[in-house]
Amino acid sequence: MELQLHVRGDRACFTRPEFAADMVSYDVITPMAARELIETIHPALGLRWRIDEIEVLRPIRSTWLSMIVDGEGDRRMANVLIDVGYLITAHTVSGVSGQACEAVQAAAIQQHLSDRGWLGAPYLGLPEFAAQIAVIAAADPLPDAALRGTGPIDLGWMLYDREAAAPRFFRAIMIDGVIDLRRFDSLILAG
């Protein structure tokens, strides 16, 4: 089953693990954060989502904020993204397959979105940064994208996901505003 989500928010922070003292965001949502976002809105048992594509819809902008950490009054600096928008394309990689099952899953996703029967409020990296989510149906027009028509941009090493609690990284290249993850076997993974 394939799914396309339009995800947006005022702020986001997808923290880079190599920065310990301050929270510093990747330039865009990571595949792991995108997968976790989908699993928050659709917690079906036996399904695992693989992110196929992340399209960046808004110009990449960031700012520094002072944030309270762990509710204890400790303040840390955080580099956060502002005014973000993504078109996330994903598909299921496990579970029962077939058109009837996919139709049931698609209906369940729509129901989760309409009644907000989520495991928790979806957010963009940190719980303070709420996500607004809309499912894009096949007949729906795609949202405008500010980065279409731009050349390749090397975003450097980015967190792909965790396997057996070990982080896996990949070299993120964005072309025309799109990070294409469909050819999983050809990604340069490290970790």
Quick summary of this structure?
This protein is mostly beta strands. The chain is built from 2 helices and 10 strands.
Write the layout of secondary structure elements.
Elements: E1 2-12, E2 23-24, H1 31-41, E3 49-56, E4 62-69, E5 74-92, H2 99-115, E6 132-135, E7 153-163, E8 166-174, E9 178-180, E10 189-190
Parallel strand pairs: 2-5
Antiparallel strand pairs: 1-5, 1-6, 3-5, 3-9, 4-5, 7-8, 8-10
Can you describe this structure?
The protein has 191 residues and is mainly beta. Helices cover 15% and strands 40% of the residues. It is built from two helices and ten strands; from the N terminus they run E-E-H-E-E-E-H-E-E-E-E-E. It has helices at residues 31-41, 99-115, and strands spanning 2-12, 23-24, 49-56, 62-69, 74-92, 132-135, 153-163, 166-174, 178-180, 189-190. The strands form two sheets. Strands 1, 2, 3, 4, 5, 6 and 9 form a seven-stranded mixed sheet that branches. Strands 7-8-10 form a three-stranded antiparallel sheet. It is globular. The chain starts with a strand and ends with a strand. 27% of the residues are buried.
| % residues in beta strands | 35-45%
Q: SS-based structural class?
A: mainly beta
The N- and C-terminal alpha carbons lie at a distance of 29 Å
* Helix content bin: 10-25%
